[in-house]
What we know:
The chain has about 475 residues and is an alpha/beta fold. It has helices at about 1-25, 30-45, 45-55, 65-95, 95-100, 100-110, 125-140, 155-170, 190-195, 215-220, 265-280, 320-330, 345-360, 375-380, 385-390, 425-430, 440-455, 460-465, 470-480; strands at about 115-125, 145-150, 175-180, 200-205, 225-230, 230-235, 255, 260-265, 305-310, 335-340, 360-370, 395, 400, 405-410, 415, 430-435, 455-460. Helix 1 (about 1-25) runs antiparallel to helix 2 and helix 6 runs antiparallel to helix 12.
Amino acid sequence: MHLHYDTLAVIAIYVFTLFTVVRILLDNGNSPKALSYMVLAVMLPVAGSIVYFVLGVNYRKRRMYSKKLKVTGQLLQSIRQKSVAATEQLIARDAPQLGGHTELAELLLNEANEPASLNRVTLLNNGEEKFPAVLADLEAAQYFIHIEYYIYENDGIGNQIKDMLMRKAKQGVKVRFIYDDFGSRGLKEDFLGPLKASGVEVFPFYKVYWPFFASRLNYRNHRKIIVIDGHTGYVGGINVSDRYINTVAGNAFYWRDAHVRIEGPAVWSLQYTFLADWNFCTRQRVHPDEHLFPPTLQSLTGVRELVQIVAGGPDYPRSTIMLSFFTAIANANERVFLTSPYFIPNTSILVALRKAALSGKDVRLLVPGESDAGFANAASRAFYQELLDCGVKIYRYQKGFIHAKALVVDDYLSIVGTANMDNRSFDLNFEINAVIYGKEFCGRLAGVFLQDITDSKLITQHTWRRRGKWQVLGDKIARLFSPLL
Length: 485
């Protein structure tokens, strides 16, 4: 009888595994991702299947974000249509400023209804440049402040901004604050209570509840957005935490990051994304009006760049962020400078980088010397050899941890934002990037990249091929699961 039960258990495991494999094939159009989950299900019977059903089911087509899609559609009709028609004329008129990257601008317009506009853009390196600018702009706010962060910590800078938000709310400024419930899990009632009491509206994005913990944990709001009075905005890789400020006493670990401050109509796109997120996580119905989207903006002086804002997440039918990276790299004419803290490219990005390098372009990749995620770092290393074989120069940052997400293509195209070069940013997380067309800004970002590689170690073919066989094997095993990272 004991043998009989053992046999039934084995049969049940095989049936469950087979069912999981079939379900993976039906659910996933992404072949590498499907293969990785199938390997996991077969290698770890039952456990691998559970991991898939908890973390791997694609909720893009499910009702999980149906309300957000509805809200997004309403905002799209009332806001985007007002500016998209003018974008075609702007692209045609300012084609030289696009530097040959008209195809990318058209892609973002046609695929995501992302308008282009003239703005003033300031590059902010590290927290020591970002936060003084943010505090000054928050102080000047007259009507409203919208703030949305993946990581917001209860520390020095977190409390500085908190105190500012409370003071502005008491002055009559409307303050709306979204924090990710996982990334900002350190925020407790002792921090949030005074904010709420002062009049600040505070909500978590997609709150994590058991038993929905795992699936909700898989879809995080990785965006970092500030919008002030509808004319000034911030976006980039720097969260609200003392660790991003290298001048803070006790911060022995150097943190390299990038953010941008935008003045001009592109702030409307940041506002649009914020309000869609706000209406989703608060169950409110904040409607767009001229107060939130002021028809006249402050007079801009100095250099102006064309800007498009591109957002992405599991509520979008396609990964527009990935398509924008692919188009930018594949259409490079001279150079590609890519900075990524988590470089785990999908097939499309890998092909674009190889194509650019094999076509004689100057392709350079800057990655951390060591990542804060060991398994992700191993998966990243597994891609280096084939890129080196194609002529890509790979630099590993040595001064500290490089967390910037930035791309420079030729002399006119820059991308700075929240998205990493991995499947999580392409398909699972809610992300947002600024695509900037302009020679002066591009030159500044390229200059920062060239400075960063002086603090880095160039990987050579000779040294990379001499790595131990066990390390190579470990990296290749990690790469098998790269579509899941």
